[in-house]
Amino acid sequence: MYFIFRCDCGRVLYAKEGVSTRKCVCGKSLKVKKRRIFKKVESIEEATESVQKMQEEIYGRSTFKKANEIPKKRFLN
After folding, report:
1. Phi, psi (degrees; rounded to nearest 5) at 42
2. Pick from 12, 11, 10, 33: nearest CA to 21
3. Domains along the chain with CATH numbers
4. Predicted pLDDT of residue 28
5. What is the DSSP string of 16-77?
6. CA 68, 55, 33, 25 torsion: positive or negative?
7. Quick check: 15 and 2 in contact, CB under 8 A?
8. What are phi and psi of 5, to 5 degrees?
9. Short-list 57, 51, 28, 55, CA closest to 39
10. Cα 23 to chain center, whole Å?
11. pLDDT tens track of the chain, all 77 residues?
12. What secondary structure letter does DSSP report for 14?
């Protein structure tokens, strides 16, 4: 089972049941037990999908691209 919760910075995260802490990309370490659990799901696929949906609801649709989809000239100086 996976728990879906939010960091203080607003990012939606998931953690597997039994995990005591989870580190957000903002750098904050969160104690899973003390977080408000928004949703519980059975599989990792459901967890990632739930996180994506919640992020879209909060921040709107994002335009994430894979590395091979970004034009190379953007990385050259």
Report:
1. -85, -35
2. 33
3. 2-59 (3.90.820.10)
4. 94
5. ETT--EEE-TTS-EEEGGGSPP-EEESSHHHHHHHHHHHHHHHH-------GGGS-GGGT--
6. positive
7. yes
8. -150, 175
9. 51
10. 11
11. 999 999 999 899 999 999 999 999 899 999 999 999 999 999 999 999 999 999 888 877 666 666 676 666 554 54
12. E
The answer to whether 10 touches 58, Cβ cutoff 8 Å, is yes
CA atoms within 13 A on the CB side of 66: 2
Give residue 1's pLDDT.
95
- Half-sphere exposure (Cβ direction) of 50: Cα atoms closer than 13 Å: 20
